[in-house]
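Lecture 7 notes. Example A: sequence first, then its C-alpha cells.
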Amino acid sequence: MKKLGIIGGIGPEATIRYYNDIIKGYQHRLGTTQSLPELTIESINMYHMFKLLDADQLTQVADYVSDAANHLQQAGADFGLMCGNTPHIAFSQIQARTKLPLLSIVDTALAHAKQLHLHRLLLLGTKFTMSNDFFSRPFQDAGIQICLPSQEEQDWLHLKIVKELENGIVNPATKLQLMQMVNHLINDNDLDGVVLGCTELPLIIEPTDLSVATFDIAKIQIEAAVNTILGNDVLH
C-alpha cells in the first residue's frame, strides 16, 4: 500500500469529493468498509494562487504549490496529486521542485480519452485552463481535437466557477444557461464528448444532462489514485 498526499483547497468542494471518493473507491476495491487508506491533505489558498496566475507569475505558483508537495512528502506521502486542474499549468515546474511523484490530471484524462476512442471534445474549465494549452496540447498531439467556448463564454464560465461552484453554490439559472451554451457548441461542432476541466464542474453537470460523453477528469484521477494506493502504479 502507498500513502497518498493530496494538495487540496483547489477548491474546497473538490477536496471533499476527493477525500470521500478515494475512500469509497479503496473500500470497494478491497470489498470491505473495515479498512481505510492512509492519506494526508495539505490545503492551500486557491485565491492566492489565482492572484499569482492573473499576474502571470508561474514561478511563484510553482514555488507555492511545490511547498505543499514537500510538506506532504515530509508527512510520509509516497505520491501526491493536486485536486484541481488549474495548477497543472505549472505542473512540470512544480514536479521539478519536489521529490514527491505527482499524479497528473492531464495524463490520466488523456489516457482515458484514448481508451474511449474520443476524437472531438469540448473543454470547459477556469479561464486559465481554457486560455492556455497545458491541457489541450497533449490531446491535440494525440490526434484529439479540442473545441473551446467563445471568449465571452469563457469569461462568463470562469466567473460562475469562482463565485458559485468553488463555494458549493449550484444556481439553477446558471445551469440552464450553461446547458444552452454546451448543447449549442456540441451541435455546431459535431462533438463526441465534453471535458469537465474544472474539478467543481461535476457539481452542476451530470452525465445524464448531455447527449454525448461527459468526461469527468476528477473521477478519472481519483480512480488512478486508488490504483496507485493499491500498488498498481500508474506513475513513471
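Example B, a different protein, same format:
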Amino acid sequence: MGKQAGLTLVRQLAFLTAMCGTAAAGPILFSSVDGQSTEGLGRFSGSLQYGGNQVTFMLTNENTSQEGGYITAFALGRPWQVEGISLASTSFGLTHLLGGPAFSGLVSAPPYGGFDFGVSTSNSWLAGGSPKGGIPAGGAGTFVFDLTGTLAGLTASDFTASGSTGYWLAVRFRGGESLDGWSDKVVLISSANAIAPPPNEIPEPATMALLGGALVGLALLRRRRKA
C-alpha cells in the first residue's frame, strides 16, 4: 500500500468516525403529564421534528373512549428564524392554519395568551359548541408545516424554547363524554417538558462495517511499514 493510499484511508477513517459521533438527533418528545390545564381532563403526547425546512408535528389524544374529547386545535410559538409558515399536510379535519400572515402572537388561546401559529377545525383556537372533526380519543394526527426564513442552524429544540407567553404549545380539547360535554385547555411550559434523545445515537450496521474495514486497512499499513 503506497503513501497516497494510506493518506486516503486515514481521511476516510476520520470522516466515518465523525459520522458515527454526530448522528442526526431524533424528534423532540413531549407529553401533557407535566403541563398546565384549566380542567385537568385532556391528555396528549406527541413529537416534533425539524428537517428540510419542514416541521413534522405528531399529536396523540391519550384520553380513553369512555372519557372522550376531541383535540380541535393546537398552537405553538415561532422561533425568530422563521418568517413564513404554510400547512403542507394535515389530518382529522384540522385544516385551518392560524396566525398568518404575521405569525406573531395572533393566535388567542385564553387564558394562556397569544401564540404565533397553529391549526384548528375552525378559524379560531378556542371555538365553541359541538366539535366538527378533531383528533378523537385514542387517535393520532400528523401535521407538516413548510417554513421560510433564515433557517440555517434552526433545530427542533428552538420550537420548544419559543413563545412570548412562557408556553410553547397550547392544545384545545372539546366534546368530552359528560352531560355538559367537557372541554379543556392544556399548555406546556417552554423547554420544560421536552425529552431529547441521546446526542450520540448507535451507528447503523453499514457505518460500523465501513469503520471496521478502515481500521483493518490501517493495521495492515502499519505492519507493512514495520516490515
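Note on Example B: Confidence is low (pLDDT under 50) at residues 5-10, 13-24, 196-202. The helical segments are 3-21, 157-160, 205-226.
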